[in-house]
Each structure stands twice: as structure tokens, then as C-alpha cells.
Amino acid sequence: MVSTVVAAGTINTPVRVTATLTGTKITTLSDQLVVSTGIADQKSFTVVPKIYNIECADHDGTDFTTVTAFAADHFNNPVPDGTAISFTTEAGAIDASCLTGLNQTTLTDGTVIKQKGIPGQCTVRFICQNPHPTNGDGRSTVLAYALGEESFVDDPTIRFGINLYDVGETFQDLRDPFRYDRAITNQEAMAVNLPPYNSVMPALGEPFIDSNGDGIWNNFGDGFYNGVLQSQPNGKTPTVHVRESFVLVFSGSNANITSLDTTPIILSHCVNGTPFANISKTLRIAVRDGNATIFSGNKAINASWLPFDLTGNILPAGTTIAFSASNGSILSGTSFIVPNTNDPSAAAWIYPVMMQSDAAQSGPSNNYECTNPVTNGLLTVKVTTPLGLITTQSYSVTD
């Protein structure tokens, strides 16, 4: 029986070890080994919530969504089981961390049960509770981070090391990440933490992660590649915090319903003896929550298709919006489900309703006689959130 040590190297590949008895032609092969899995790479780090727009503005004390982190190495293989991912949130509460490849369950007595999970990923809970978003926009930034390495673009023409960073190759020079609580979109939340950097700096109350431990927030990277995959170690810290941010919407349960077009709704009127031209009419109805914020894209001055400014955030994902009419006919869809999104644009919550008169008319042989038993009624909008809260709004319809 003999043994040997196999160093992992830097190439993601299957490996077999060949052993030869000295002085003979006797050889044998080991079982197959696999060299893979390194530390988390910035370009291979993703964090997403199950639901972006959660029914959180008016309800506390409930686990309203989960957040899952996905981490892979430079070769896009899942990171080793047990890699720690940390989280911080502007509003509500979130589990402090999770370990990739492990499912953790906390019992009421505080006991933590760990079971085998999915490689390269782990999940935490997000809870609706105080604090609620303090800047009034009903949005909360979540920052996730883990120890990993900067991404680089390998240049095969540089001879020192393939699959290793060499001086002169392009890399992401990461600065200290911070939780950008002023972000409205995912893009804004991440733009401050990835090069090329904008001029935004942490504001009062926005925590940063001190990657190099110098006690201050660094506005730029250190100019050196930070990672374990180096052909010639540069003496700098081999790890840095990889990061990902997104924005959750604390959606309200009470719907704010507004018609963008003239009401009451006046449909075509059938007149005996005159050929009936039954022209359809479309009413645009904005259905959102009661947040008072007017986002930039929802100001009439910035959106020519809006007749006036519109306040609000999108309603909770899964909310049902139903349209019904006691006069006239609805030609468009009558039921919609609010999508899973944090899009601040009013375009995400404006619903067009196409209607026309339900009057009927005979042909010329009967002198174009009209039949229209009901000439006055209502178009009713009914909104039902996932927690069962109902809001209705009606508009007069005549034909």
C-alpha cells in the first residue's frame, strides 16, 4: 500500500494518477479524481428573492419571501459546500447568513438542524417587520456578500499561466461594497458596487463592508488583482467581498384605482332608423398601492403618454384585478394577475379596458330598430390581494 498527495492546480478537469513500480513495467491507474470548485467569483455571484413585490406595507410578523444566493467559481462550477453568504437589509429583517449546499432549519428552542442542500446555493427568509422603509418610497435595498475573488479575463497569449491571472490582464477592481438604500431599481443598487463606478458614496446610515480591514470606505479598488488564481502572487489579500444587491417593494394592501381617461364612460348610442356604428372605447385604469411617491418615470413631464403624475408602487405579486360591467360589453381581458416585479414604471400597473355598447340593431328590412334593455350601468374594478384584502371602484357607463 502506497499513498501520494495530489495538488489541485488551476484547471477544472478530471484526473487519474498513474503509479509505476520502480524497475518494472508494472503500472496501475487510480480511481478518477475531479479537480473543480474554487472560491466565489464576482461574475458568478447571483442573489434573487422569490417575490420582489411583497404585501409588507400594512402587515408585519410574517415570512413574506425567501432570498436565494447562487455562487460559482471562475470556471462557473458551484463553490464548495459550506461557503458562507451574508445579508443585510434596509427594512424588514433577513436571516444574517446561510451556507451553500446546506439547508438550515431553526427550531423554536433555537436548535439549528442542517441537512444536505443543493450545491452552490442557499436560502434565507425575509420577514415583514419594523423598520419599514424610512425614505417614503416603500422600497428596501438588500445587500448580499461573500468572500471570493475578483473576476478576470484570461489572455491565452500571455505565457505565464493559463486559467490564472497575469499582470496586464483585464480584471474587476472591486471597491468596498455598500448597501445603497436610495436605490429604486436593481440596476441602481448594483451600479454603485461594480466598476465603472459612479460618483455615489455611502450616505448616513448606509453600511459598507470593509473588505481590506482598514477601517474606512474605499472609493476605488486597490489597483491589484485580489484572488487566489494568480500566476505570480502580488502580496495582496487573495480574497475580496463579492457582492449583489436588489430592491424589494413593500407593497400596500389597499389599492389606489384611477382612470386616466374621461369618465363617465359614454359608449355609442343606438338610434332607431339610423345605421348603428358601434365604436369601441378604451379606458386606461391605473391600479397600484397607496404609496405617495411619484417616481421620475411616472411624472407627466417625463412621460408624454401620461395625462398627469401618478403616485404609487405596484401591488403585491399575485394580486387579482377583475373587471366587470353591468352595461356594455368588455372586449379586452377581464382578469389580470399582478406580476412578480419591482419595476417602478406605471406601465407595469396600467390596465387598458376596451368596451363597446351591447345594444343590438335589426337590418334595413326592419327599419334599423334598436334593442338595448340596459342603457345605464357600471364598470367595476375589484382588486383582491394575496392576503384577501379587497378594494373596489366603479365608473358609470351609458350607451
The CATH architecture of the largest domain: Sandwich
Could you tell me the CATH topology label of the largest domain: Immunoglobulin-like
CATH superfamily of the largest domain: Immunoglobulins
Q: Which outline best applies? A: elongated
- Helical fraction equals under 10%
- The average pLDDT is 91
CATH class of the largest domain: Mainly Beta
Low-confidence stretches: none
- Which assembly state applies to the chains in this document? single chain
What is the number of strand segments?
27
Head-to-tail CA distance between termini: 95 Å
Q: Number of DSSP helices?
A: 1
- Strand portion, in percent? 25-35%
Number of domains: 2
Quickly give the structural class: mainly beta
- Element order, helices and strands? EEEEEEEEEEEEEEEHEEEEEEEEEEEE
Radius of gyration: 30 Å
Structural write-up:
The structure is a single chain. It is built from one helix and 27 strands. It has 399 residues and is mainly β. It is elongated and about 115 Å long. The chain has two domains: 40-250, Immunoglobulins (Immunoglobulin-like, Sandwich); 256-398, Sandwich (Immunoglobulin-like). The termini are far apart. Strand 24 and strand 25 (370-371) form a beta hairpin. The strands form eight sheets. Strands 5, 7, 9, 11, 15 and 16 form a six-stranded mixed beta sheet that branches.
